[in-house]
Design brief:
The chain has 801 residues and is α+β, with helices and mostly antiparallel strands. 53% of the residues lie in helices and 18% in strands. Among the domains are: 1-65 and 266-405, no CATH class; 93-228, no CATH class; 477-661, no CATH class. The strands form 3 sheets. The protein has a 6-stranded mixed β-sheet with strand order 9-5-2-10-1-11. A 6-stranded mixed β-barrel has the order 13-14-19-16-18-17. Strands 4-3-7-8-6 form a 5-stranded mixed β-sheet. Strand 13 (516-531) and strand 14 (534-543) form a beta hairpin. Helix 13 (433-444) crosses helix 21 (711-738) and helix 21 (711-738) runs antiparallel to helix 23 (765-793).
């Protein structure tokens, strides 16, 4: 006598047979689960790889825990004394730099005649020599790059932006004439790798640095850098630095945490976006699994009744049905995990090039494994929860009536459906009979059709939010988050011996140019502000803030006797709108009232706005203007730049694009993935849902066919019901994305610590509120058309069998 089949083997065989018997449904559900596992695994692993790349770069380059940029003269003895008075300082240095405007740099390729200019870049180009000890510029091997005389190492970002190669010749236009340097390679910079950084460093020998400085045309600058025993003490050291008189502080101050946040922000957004999409897809998958399982139980209710009648316990019956979903979830997780690892490698390739190759650690294995286990457990757990409905099945009801419900619940359901159906009569109405039938079916079976609105609503959210983030960061109005007015043109004048005269000439030239309107000069002035622990450095832009300038999160623009603070500065000083702040410049002190706060992600986020006019003794000037008559701002900026070589002139749209290049590139990739998956999943689920619905409605369709309804009319009913439910879900998703999504994303971005106090999404209305909803409706229509063809060709005589 053969031995009985073990329970596990029986469940496995039952599950495999079930998968083969329902291959179409299994394939559709598996695709959604595979995408869920792939995106969640890929996003989690990409974040781990990005963090590992930055950690590796920071370990190799050893960036400062606190740095202070400075333009102008300084007292080295004061720096020595400060370091001696603070034993937490492990090491410190002063990095000498010579900054050149991008218009002064160009490159050529020997032997080919190829070349180009850096003039389109708004980034300051700072020539430096290699540091010793820390803040190293690294070559591809992770070691400090060492140029030979006459050579230069460019940052990786310039290699990607301008297509420069090793062996090309970089030409620097100095006052003494052009100076050529051979590109020896490319370096990774832990301090200035992000596009949010206002400058980038180019590595030369100390001798070449001295020669560039002596040749003129560049602006000498320094960075005072400190490494601490405990990086957590950077904020305290910064506060002490700003309280100490005679220290160089004519520039922005940055801490280790800010450097890390800026480096992580752009690429990290892609990983977060992918994980968000994966979570929404998981919800879609779970909704569909619930629908499929309930339908399967209805189809197999008599088999369940037989199993109960022969004495099989509920746990065994649940286990037999659960085996199918265990196998499907396990297979989907394995395939999705493999795809996710490949996607993570593609996403992290750019990070490895910009930062460093991340080492393989236990987290590299555990994080994606945990993501896959989570997908599997959540999926199986939900399936188990739905299958517990088997316990409520009565043997008599299952075998005699073929129903999962007892007599009382069956009667209540029938009464509810009849009541809903009576509300929409068939005898009268402006719509045709087929349309009225479709609407009545939707009312009577609203719960059965609820899946489609849910799926399409979630798909709309998945598609709209990443795209809206992209449109927000590329919208010209986003410049107000950079602490700048919504203008067409921007000119920057950096510190130089002729700075004040250059400012006067540029303002006069623009004011007399009929192509330019609304010229607004602003001066960057260094003040000291009285904080809780003493005097602190405060960089303020002094100018005219009447009219539409900066967008204020709280309060309003300052008038004489007032000041507006950036969000981070207000938090740092512990001040709010209406409070009073004491300022000091030189020996003069004055008290001003806080008129409001605004968002700013530039200069580390620590800025201020003062009304007035400063025409001399400023550390820098920036001039904004509009193009008259709607002229091309970029073309006008090029003409004005040629006429004002002392200034860096650029269109504000291009300035915003370059400043946020890493972020917008990241969002563009995430938005493309989200749109593709949203449309694909919506189409797939529509086909799956309609296939199952038609299988269960065969008898009612057979009755309609016997009454004289043609296959074309039945297909039209199907299309109408599909479009109505999909349209309702899409509309709900659009509304949720525009309301709750706006609040959610705004909260997350504001909490990132970049200096954004109030973040409002700026959607591309034609795309997100017209094209995407129409795309989803088209997906629903495609699914209905595919299934409708089967209705027209089907042998209707078998529907009543």
């Amino acid at each position: 006598m053969p031995s009985p089949t073990p329970p596990d083997a029986l469940s496995l065989r039952y599950g495999l047979n079930d998968l083969r018997r329902n291959a179409g449904v299994t394939a559709a559900l598996s695709v959604v689960l595979v995408l869920t596992a792939a995106l969640l695994t890929g996003g989690a692993l990409a974040m781990e790889r990005l963090t590992g790349s930055i950690d590796q770069l920071f370990d190799q380059a050893r960036p400062p825990h606190f740095l202070q940029m400075h333009v102008g003269a300084y007292d080295p003895a004061a720096l020595d004394a400060f370091a001696a008075d603070h034993p937490q300082v492990r090491d410190w240095l002063v990095e000498e730099m010579v900054g050149f405007d991008s218009a002064a740099l160009s490159w050529t390729r020997p032997g080919t005649g190829e070349g180009g200019s850096f003039a389109a870049s708004v980034i300051d180009n700072l020539f430096v020599a290699q540091n010793e000890g820390f803040d190293l510029l690294l070559g591809p091997d992770g070691r400090a790059a060492r140029p030979a005389p006459g050579e230069v190492f460019l940052p990786v970002a310039q290699q990607r932006t301008f297509g420069v190669r090793a062996g090309d010749v970089l030409t620097v236009q100095t006052l003494a004439g052009p100076r050529d340097l051979t590109v020896a390679g490319f370096v990774r910079d832990a301090q200035m790798a992000s596009s949010l950084s206002s400058a980038t460093r180019l590595l030369v020998t100390p001798e070449d640095l001295a020669a560039l400085n002596a040749a003129g045309g560049g602006a000498p600058e320094i960075i005072v850098e400190y490494r601490l025993d405990d990086p957590a003490g950077a904020a305290a050291l910064q506060a002490a630095y700003e309280r100490t008189p005679d220290l160089p502080r004519n520039g922005q101050a940055i801490t280790y945490d800010m450097i890390r946040l800026i480096n992580t922000f752009s690429d990290g957004l892609v990983a977060i976006a992918l994980m968000f999409v994966s979570l929404v897809l998981m919800v879609i998958a779970l909704l569909n699994l619930r629908f499929v399982i309930r339908g399967t139980l209805e189809d197999e209710v008599r088999q369940i009744g037989v199993m109960k009648a022969i004495g099989l316990p509920n746990a065994t019956i649940v286990g037999l049905h659960l085996a199918r979903y265990r196998l499907m979830a396990a297979g989907s997780c394995l395939i999705g995990g493999a795809l996710g690892i490949g996607a993570a490698q593609a996403l992290s390739a750019a990070a490895a090039g910009s930062y460093a190759a991340a080492p393989i650690t236990p987290a590299t294995i555990l994080i994606p494994l945990a993501a896959l286990v989570a997908v599997y457990l959540i999926t199986v757990g939900m399936c188990r929860g739905v299958l517990r409905g088997v316990r409520r099945v009565q043997v008599v009801d299952a075998l005699v009536h073929g129903s999962l419900m007892d007599d009382r619940r069956t009667a209540a359901t029938a009464a509810r459906q009849a009541r809903l159906a009576r509300r929409g009569g068939l005898a009268h109405g402006r719509l045709g009979l087929a349309a009225r039938l479709a609407l009545r079916d939707l009312r009577a079976d609203a719960r059965q059709w609820a899946l489609l609105p849910a799926v399409f609503g979630l798909a709309a959210i998945v598609m709209i939010l990443p795209t809206t983030l992209l449109s927000t960061f590329t919208d010209p109005r986003f410049v107000t988050y950079l602490g700048a007015p919504d203008a067409d043109l921007r000119a920057d004048l950096a510190f130089s011996p002729t700075l004040d005269a250059d400012r006067d000439r540029l303002v006069a030239a623009w004011a007399s140019d009929p192509r330019v309107t609304d010229v607004r000069p602003y001066a960057t002035v260094l003040f000291q502000a009285r904080g809780a622990e003493g005097w602190e450095a405060l960089r303020a832009e002094v100018g005219d803030y009447t009219g539409a300038t900066v967008s204020f999160a709280e309060g309003r623009a300052p008038v004489p006797g007032e000041i507006a603070l950036s969000h981070l500065n207000a938090s740092k000083l512990g001040l709010a709108t209406g409070d009073t702040l004491t300022l000091r410049r030189g020996d003069a002190e004055t008290s001003v009232r806080i008129s409001g706060t605004y968002s700013d992600v530039t200069s580390g986020g620590y800025t201020a706005k003062l009304p007035g006019e400063v025409t001399h003794d400023a550390s820098a000037y920036v001039v904004y203007a509009d193009a008259a008559g709607g002229a091309d701002a970029e073309a006008l900026a090029a003409d004005l730049a040629a006429a004002s070589p002392a200034a860096s002139v650029i269109g504000m749209r291009e300035y915003t694009r370059q400043t946020l290049a890493h972020i917008t590139d990241a969002f563009a990739r995430a938005a493309a993935v989200a749109v593709g998956f949203g449309l694909g999943v919506a189409t797939l689920i529509t086909v799956l849902f309609l296939k199952l619905r038609l299988a269960r409605e065969r008898r009612s369709l057979g009755v309609l066919s016997a009454l004289g309804f043609s296959g074309r009319e039945l297909a039209a009913q199907l299309r109408l019901k599909t479009l109505l439910t999909a349209g309702a879900g899409t509309a709900l998703g659009v509304v949720l994305a525009a309301t709750a999504g706006d609040a959610l994303v705004g909260t997350l971005v504001s909490a990132a610590g970049l200096g954004v106090a109030r973040f409002t999404l700026l959607p591309d209305v034609p795309l997100t509120y017209l094209a995407y909803p129409l795309g989803l409706l088209a997906a629903a229509l495609i699914g209905a058309q595919l299934l409708g063809r089967g209705l027209r060709r089907a042998d209707k005589s078998r529907w009543l069998a």
